[in-house]
Amino acid sequence: MASRFVDRAVIHLTAGDGGNGCASVHREKFKPLGGPDGGNGGNGGDVLLVVDPNVHTLLDFHFRPHAKAGNGKMGQGGNRAGAAGETLTMKVPSGTVVFTEDGELVADLIGPGTTFVAAQGGRGGLGNASLSSKARKAPGFALLGEPGETRNLTLELRSVADVGLLGFPSAGKSSLISVLSAAKPKIADYPFTTLVPNLGVITGGDTVFTMADVPGLIPGASEGKGLGLDFLRHIERCAVLVHVVDCATLDPGRDPLSDVDALEAELAKYTPSLGGKLEERPRVVVLNKIDVPEAAELAEFVRPELEARGLPVFEVSTASRKGLRELTFALAAIVEKYREAQPVLEPEKIVLRPLAVDDSGFTVEADPEEEGAFIVRGARPERWIRQTDFGNDEAVGYLADRLNRLGVEDQLAKLGARPGSPVTIGDVQFEWEPSTPSVAMHLSGRGTDVRLERNDRIGATERKEARRIRREGTDEFEDDLDADE
């Protein structure tokens, strides 16, 4: 039967897209142009990773690696905003570490309720009611919703334990954790019986600590031999490392000293991704199986040399339970000392750092692949491009005004851009025309709504001219009447 324990998974996440804004005009009897009333689009849903104490493996992600949050709804007329997309919450075990595709550590999730936004939902577009201003009282366009973030992440489970048991296969690690705690690992007389880490809770006096039984290690484990490379990560968080040595082994060429040296060499080669060095962790050596007479003699022989290295040594037998009480209290004392040495965790402070006065929020540089072309980069210009409906002249004009106010046109002119120079922002390339900032299109100045384009109202200038003509005509008529008389 295949193992149900999975401690590494690659997931593909897609956050929800933001809903489009609505371009609408209020309709009411005797009010042909009641003003814009288009609502905003809803924001797309986020993808969250939340630590759940009832989850102990990454098995669900192994079988279902793809996940997508809900999309935001489009805005509607009557100032009705679209509904926000549904947030997708994915439960992970405590000790989950999140990496990007490039291997960059982005989150270390420890403790129930810890939350990480794995993919950010897209922002909803503004409706024309929100875009109205004194200069643009009846916008005939709305902004588009932004697409949700797409990310590929690697999840790795790092066991959260105070004590880590290390040793060669069949050294007695599983037997030790089974007699010290309520854990029930598989125990057999063949190598690599333990295929998954086992956790046990142990009480020593007033101290309660956890112990992790890591699958057996062999020389070359740090390079991927055996099961070592996959499970060495489970000891990165341990406060103390315990070498469990089989003093009753019948394998030729093996003895307690060589076993400890071989495992220490593998620990020195392994580089923890969470920081720190394993060689700096406290060590304890457990000489196991002393219920066998030959093993007891060997333990007494090697004990002085191990103590000369500064290593605490304990002779135990899981069969007769000899020496287990002393080992338990010694480990509890080391764990308690380690905990006291750790800095006190303080609540994270939210620091607001305003942008520098000279921070324009964008950069303009020459396009290395096309002579005379330019590339504009920046969060705001690229977001504005994604929000623009290029099938609407007025929306394009609004984009041009925003880019001009931001200073893009001035920067292009300083770099030597000429009318017609190709300019790329995000995924869109257009020709630069200074007369219509950053946009080479003829703008109508109105939206695509026919009712907005039609205007039958007589202006003030026309009314004044009509009064003048009527007045002059009246004066001429009176002069002619006087002459006839």
TrEMBL record:
InterPro entries: G_OBG, GTP-bd, GTP-bd_Obg/CgtA, GTP-bd_prot_GTP1/OBG_C_sf, GTP1-OBG_CS, GTP1_OBG_dom, GTP1_OBG_dom_sf, OBG_GTPase. One of its GO terms (biological process) is ribosome biogenesis. Pfam families: DUF1967, GTP1_OBG, MMR_HSR1. It is an enzyme of class 3 (hydrolase). Residues 161-336 form the OBG-type G domain. GO terms for cellular component: cytoplasm. Mg(2+) binds at residues 174, 194. Residues 454-485 are annotated as: Disordered. Gene3D superfamilies: GTP-binding protein OBG, C-terminal domain, GTP1/OBG domain, P-loop containing nucleotide triphosphate hydrolases. Residues 3-160 form the Obg domain. GTP binds at residues 167-174, 192-196, 213-216, 288-291, 317-319. It is found in: Cytoplasm. Its EC number is 3.6.5.-. Residues 475-485 have a biased composition (Acidic residues). Its cofactor is Mg(2+). Residues 354-434 form the OCT domain. It comes from the Bacteria. Residues 454-465 have a biased composition (Basic and acidic residues). Keywords: Cytoplasm, GTP-binding, Hydrolase, Magnesium, Metal-binding, Nucleotide-binding. Its main location: cytoplasm. An essential GTPase which binds GTP, GDP and possibly (p)ppGpp with moderate affinity, with high nucleotide exchange rates and a fairly low GTP hydrolysis rate. Plays a role in control of the cell cycle, stress response, ribosome biogenesis and in those bacteria that undergo differentiation, in morphogenesis control. HAMAP family: GTPase_Obg (MF_01454). Belongs to the TRAFAC class OBG-HflX-like GTPase superfamily. OBG GTPase family. Monomer. This is GTPase Obg.
